[in-house]
């Protein structure tokens, strides 16, 4: 492993004041340490955030506030999340292994990096690693890659389950830096690859994720997360869907739809949501919504199967939410 400096911060101020712009923050380390061992990430310096008081889940009138250091397992089991944001609990429990969920944090999950094998193995042609070097996956092995949101420069899929549910729930992310504080909607936090796939989020150097806020929306309790993958556990999504339905008098009054495993970022489908509005919660509406959600796909030779898989996954999630 590449040598690096290490600082354990006792406060947010200490973390931000410690030449933070040139450092990488570490919490659970379940993604970062992997990539450091592989030699993909070579930070000069780590700032350990584990001692900061950012590990609480608090219910407020506005919704639920989640500290960035809350562990994935604790969040999944929290009563407020299980009852008011069920798809988020299901998404968290579908990811990784119990040991990893005990360690991984909410902030780290937001920063999770792609599983593209070319990227993780420092392949010479990878624009995410070396801008301008090319994309080996574009005409290479691309079975697991994105069919939505890609560019000719990168088609790496976003790996997180948690983020998909948070996109459906319109989470807000609070960020702190030396300059102050700002709040970013999760839909704007992750970036499309475009010409710069190496820039993955709007997080600036030296900026720390401190909190995720979920709004209080009663119908989010009627939500589901469905995940299709190669094996039943400890596996990333080939396609997943987080949905929430507001059904009144046999009619869908509002809907939230987000897809995972298919996009270069956690993928909100407003097209599908529009189609569901005012419709009866049944097969014809669900199938039309699923076709709309996948209408703009750009599959590569090995991953065209994801189009139908994602449609069926979305229909199943909508059926489960409707029957909840
Ligand atoms: Fe690199 Fe993205 Fe291409 Fe994978 S898909 S090789 S991460 S540029």
Keywords, separated by commas or semicolons:
globular, 324 residues, four-stranded antiparallel sheet, binds iron/sulfur cluster
Task: Describe what this molecule looks like in 3D.
- This protein is an alpha+beta fold and 324 residues long.
- 29% of the residues lie in helices and 21% in strands.
- It has 13 helices and 12 strands.
- It has helices at residues 12-17, 32-37, 72-77, 79-84, 86-93, 98-103, 106-110, 117-120, 162-168, 186-189, 270-276, 283-293, 305-322; strands spanning 5-8, 24-26, 45-48, 57-60, 63-67, 172-177, 180-185, 208-215, 223-228, 239-248, 251-260, 267-268.
- The strands form 3 sheets. Strands 4-5-8-6-7 form a 5-stranded antiparallel beta sheet.
- Strand 6 (172-177) and strand 7 form a beta hairpin.
- Helix 5 runs antiparallel to helix 9.
- It is globular, with a radius of gyration of 19 Å.
- The N and C termini lie far apart (49 Å).
- The relative contact order is 0.13.
- The model has no long low-confidence stretch (mean pLDDT 97).
- The structure holds iron/sulfur cluster.
* Parts with pLDDT < 50 across at least 5 consecutive residues: none
Mean pLDDT, all residues: 97
DSSP helix count? 13
Helix content percent band: 25-40%
Bound molecules: iron/sulfur cluster
Sheet with the most strands, sense and barrel status:
5 strands, antiparallel
Fold blueprint:
Layout: E1 5-8, H1 12-17, E2 24-26, H2 32-37, E3 45-48, E4 57-60, E5 63-67, H3 72-77, H4 79-84, H5 86-93, H6 98-103, H7 106-110, H8 117-120, H9 162-168, E6 172-177, E7 180-185, H10 186-189, E8 208-215, E9 223-228, E10 239-248, E11 251-260, E12 267-268, H11 270-276, H12 283-293, H13 305-322
Parallel strand pairs: 1-3, 2-3
Antiparallel strand pairs: 4-5, 5-8, 6-7, 6-8, 9-10, 10-11, 11-12
Helix pairs in contact: 5-9, 11-12, 12-13
The chain binds iron/sulfur cluster.
């Amino acid at each position: 492993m590449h040598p690096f400096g290490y600082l354990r911060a006792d406060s947010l101020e200490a973390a931000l004041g410690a030449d933070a712009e040139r450092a990488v923050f570490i919490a659970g380390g379940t993604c970062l340490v992997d990539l450091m061992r592989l030699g993909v990430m070579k930070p000069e310096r780590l700032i350990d955030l584990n001692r900061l008081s950012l590990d609480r889940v608090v219910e407020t009138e506005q919704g639920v506030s989640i500290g960035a250091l809350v562990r994935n397992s604790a969040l999944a089991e929290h009563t407020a999340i299980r009852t008011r944001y069920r798809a988020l609990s299901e998404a968290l429990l579908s990811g990784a292994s119990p040991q990893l969920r005990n360690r991984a944090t909410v902030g780290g999950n937001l920063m999770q990096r792609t599983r593209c094998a070319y990227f993780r193995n420092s392949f010479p042609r990878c624009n995410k690693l070396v801008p301008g070097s090319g994309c080996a996956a574009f005409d290479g092995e691309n079975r697991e890659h994105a069919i939505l949101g890609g560019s000719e420069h990168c088609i790496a899929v976003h790996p997180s389950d948690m983020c998909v549910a948070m996109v459906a729930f319109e989470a807000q992310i609070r960020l702190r830096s030396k300059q102050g504080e700002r709040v970013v909607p999760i839909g704007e936090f992750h970036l499309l690859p475009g010409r710069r796939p190496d820039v993955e989020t709007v997080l600036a150097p030296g900026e720390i994720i401190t909190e995720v806020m979920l709004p209080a929306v009663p119908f989010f309790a009627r939500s589901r997360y469905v995940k299709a993958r190669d094996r039943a556990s400890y596996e990333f999504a080939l396609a997943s869907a987080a949905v929430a339905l507001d059904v009144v008098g046999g009619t869908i009054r509002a809907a939230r739809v987000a897809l995972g495993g298919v996009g270069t970022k956690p993928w909100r489908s407003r097209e599908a949501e529009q189609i569901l509005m005012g419709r009866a919660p049944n097969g014809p509406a669900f199938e039309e919504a699923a076709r709309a959600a996948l209408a703009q796909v750009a599959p590569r030779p090995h991953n065209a199967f994801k189009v139908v898989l994602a449609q069926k996954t979305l229909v199943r999630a909508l059926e489960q939410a409707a029957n909840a």
